[in-house]
């Protein structure tokens, strides 16, 4: 329930010893149980966390997450990590961050997405406020570069623009059951660049001015009625 600024810090080793699969260990965490929290998180170095590098959680939380370098532990069978999480109704502006090294090696990174439920992401939006925007980030060497998920796609449209997705192990960007726009993103050397997946086939995803280079598959749809 606090507001403020976290800037120019290094946050490291927020984890159990030994490193554990327990869903804990957030290097920077903003939560709002009531009221509102407005927090600027910028130009920090975050690494060696257990579950998440930066997490914005709960409705009423609004974060500016800008210019951070957030690095997971790399391939591990222990836990699925995420560099940035915006979850459970929180909203954020996520810009100009470098996120990498989130690889849950217990799951096959290139298997059919619908059976790969335990992958991780450089940037994860999970039931986030659809006002959240993700732009200008570089996501590399993650299972999924940017992963946007929502139970209620009619709630709004998520905007993901001008990001660089390169050498991710499964997917560059995944829109999972959401309305979304992918604009001006650069997909480079990913097995799948842009994925639209929705078991209910009621979401709409558009791709505008995206560029695709060296991907095995540029765009893919699973159980979705909407064409790119």
Describe the structure.
This protein is mainly β and 228 residues long. It is 0% helix and 52% strand. The protein is built from no helices and 24 strands. The strands form 3 sheets. It has an 8-stranded parallel sheet with strand order 1-4-7-10-13-16-19-22, with no helix packed on it. Strands 2-5-8-11-14-17-20-23 form an 8-stranded parallel sheet, with no helix packed on it. It has an 8-stranded parallel sheet with strand order 3-6-9-12-15-18-21-24, with no helix packed on it.
Average pLDDT over all residues: 91
Separate helix tally: 0
The residue ranges in which pLDDT falls below 50 over 5 or more consecutive positions are: none
Q: Structural class, judged by helices and strands?
A: mainly beta
Radius of gyration: 16 Å
Percent strand: over 45%
Q: What about the largest sheet?
A: 8 strands, parallel
Q: Categorize the overall geometry.
A: globular
Helix amount: under 10%
By DSSP, the count of extended strands is 24
- From N to C, what is the helix and strand string? EEEEEEEEEEEEEEEEEEEEEEEE
What keywords describe this structure?
globular; single chain; mainly beta
Compact overview of the structure:
With 228 residues, the chain is mostly beta strands. It has strands spanning 4-7, 10-12, 26-31, 37-42, 45-47, 52-57, 61-66, 69-76, 82-87, 91-95, 98-104, 121-126, 133-135, 138-140, 144-149, 157-161, 164-166, 171-176, 179-183, 186-188, 192-197, 205-208, 211-213, 217-222. The model has no long low-confidence stretch (mean pLDDT 91).
